[in-house]
Amino acid sequence: MKSFKKLFTSKPKPHIPESSFKIGGMGSLKVLDVIPSPEDDSHKLKKAFQGFGTDEDGIIEILGHRDANQRKKIRETYHQLYNETLVDALKSELSGDFGKAVILWTYDPSERDARLANEALKSKKKGIKHLEIIVEMSCASSPQHIVAVRQAYCTLFDHSVEEDIVASVPPPLRKILVGLVTSYRYDKEVVDTDVANLEADRLHEAIKTKDLAHDDVVFILSTRNFYQLRTTFECYKKKHGNPIDKDIEKSGKGDLESLLRMVMLCIDSPEKHFAELLKFDLVGFEFIVQVRTQV
């Protein structure tokens, strides 16, 4: 548990480069100015696996201070040197929450999200908390990332994430999630205030009439770029007096309302969303690992 806490107890922030990502007692997860070669890192990892007990601190020191591209090279090199995948080696040496966390961290970001999404969709306990990963990867990451996740999902599980959403998530949540994962948003800072004002009114009408899964709502939330949506939310507050998430909360306490509030928060203030998750401290390490988008 000591190493687990060391790895995952501080407050990571979404949308920041991996070179300044913060993880646990290590402070800032900064990539070193001079990076050892993948061969050197692979040899050190192999050594950490040998002997009496596993050198968990040694594993963290290497994998915790390498960005995604560097970890990829380490995975490839380790496999070439020892004819064993690094993930398999970690699985054989580590256990419990710490082991699962390190393995998730070691995966390529898109593969990590794909695996987490599949685990959530296959879970028998399929509540809103289990669907957070789908919302986060759709609304708190780049369009390129969600495309990479969908590709990884198909490669790993021989079917698409949207197929599994349709098969396992009830309507109207299904409609919202499929719209989110299949969209490809424009990622430049382009805003049309006239459209923002118009769509703020459309969203207000949907909330007022409790028609939260209306096609207009799905279209707006799944196709508009994040800058446009944030402007729409600002227009909503100016025109209708309350933040949009608060009006959704007032309209009901069901799963649909909770899901939409999560969508709004991930789009408007992803750092607040992840900060709320971190209030759970170590109750479920994936809350921390899932700050994935740039990691």
CATH architecture verdict of the largest domain: Orthogonal Bundle
CATH topology of the largest domain, anyone?
A: Annexin V, domain 1
Number of strands: 2
CATH homologous superfamily grouping of the largest domain: Annexin
As for the number of domains, it is 3
Instruction: Spell the H/E element sequence.
Output: HEEHHHHHHHHHHHHHHHHH
Helix content: 55-70%
User: What global shape is seen?
Assistant: elongated
Ends distance: 23 Å
What strand line-up does the widest sheet have?
A: 1-2
CATH class label of the largest domain: Mainly Alpha
Largest sheet: 2 strands, antiparallel
Helical run tally: 18
Characterize the quaternary organization of these chains: single chain
Describe the structure.
With 295 residues, the chain is mainly α. It folds into three domains: 2-106, Annexin (Annexin V, domain 1); 110-182, Annexin V, domain 1, CATH 1.10.220.10; 193-267, Annexin (Annexin V, domain 1, Orthogonal Bundle). Helices cover 66% and strands 1% of the residues. The chain is built from 18 helices and two strands. A two-stranded antiparallel ribbon has the order 1-2. Strand 1 and strand 2 (28-29) form a beta hairpin. Helix 16 crosses helix 17. The protein is elongated.
Q: Summarize this, please?
A:
The protein has 3 domains: 2-106, Annexin (Annexin V, domain 1), CATH 1.10.220; 110-182, Annexin V, domain 1 (Orthogonal Bundle), CATH 1.10.220; 193-267, Annexin (Annexin V, domain 1). The protein has 18 helices and 2 strands.
